[in-house]
Amino acid sequence: MLIYRSDGSAVAITAGEWLEYLDLARQHGWMPTGTSRPAVTLDVDREPQQDRDWSAAYAPACGQVVRREDARQLSIALERAEKNPKANRMCRSLSSLIHALSSGPVLLGDGDEPLRRETVASPTYEYANQTQSGD
Fold first, then answer.
1. 3-state SS string for the chain
2. Largest CA distance in the chain
3. What span, in angstroms and rounded, lies between the C-alpha atoms of 114 and 1?
4. Axis crossing angle, helix 68-81 with helix 15-27, rounded to the nearest 10
5. What's the Cα-to-Cα distance from 26 to each of 19, 36, 86, 117, rounded to whole Å?
6. Cα atoms in the Cβ-side hemisphere of radius 13 Å centred on 49
7. For the segment 62-108, what is each residue's pLDDT rounded down to a tens digit?
8. Per-residue pLDDT tens for 23-76?
9. How far are the Cα atoms of 37, 39, 48 from residue 51, in angstroms, in the given order?
């Protein structure tokens, strides 16, 4: 999966690593506030999110947005967890993930190849920045 920053850069991690990091962050004091509904459907194989109730889930990645303050709190918890030997073994990209989250909001995307920067930085991030204080 890819975690996109508002500048269009992305951090690639596996979906399993993301779930482990969410759990690790909870263990280190992060209190999830939920994600914002995707602005648009990013996957033609999934039904449009706008037509369903939004669960505010962090997984699976489908274009949802982790708001600025939630991303910041997640990064703080992961910084605390970084001292944990288990975290150091989990993923080589923990520091990159912490950096991406600390500047939130971030968009959670499915896949392993980042979109072109101009594609990511357009309507989705306008939406993310508009919803950073709530839905």
1. CEEECCCCCEEECCHHHHHHHHHHHHHCCCCCCCCECCCCCCCCCCCCHHHCCCCCCCCCCCCCEECHHHHHHHHHHHHHHCCCHHHHHHCCCHHHHHHHHHCCCEEEECCCCCCCHHHHCCHHHHHHHHCCCCC
2. 43
3. 9
4. 80
5. 11, 19, 14, 31
6. 19
7. 889 999 999 999 999 998 888 877 666 665 667 788 888 887 788 88
8. 989 999 999 999 998 876 555 565 655 556 788 999 999 889 999 999 999 999
9. 11, 12, 6
Tokens of 36: 């914002």
What the block records as the tokens of 38 is 């995707």
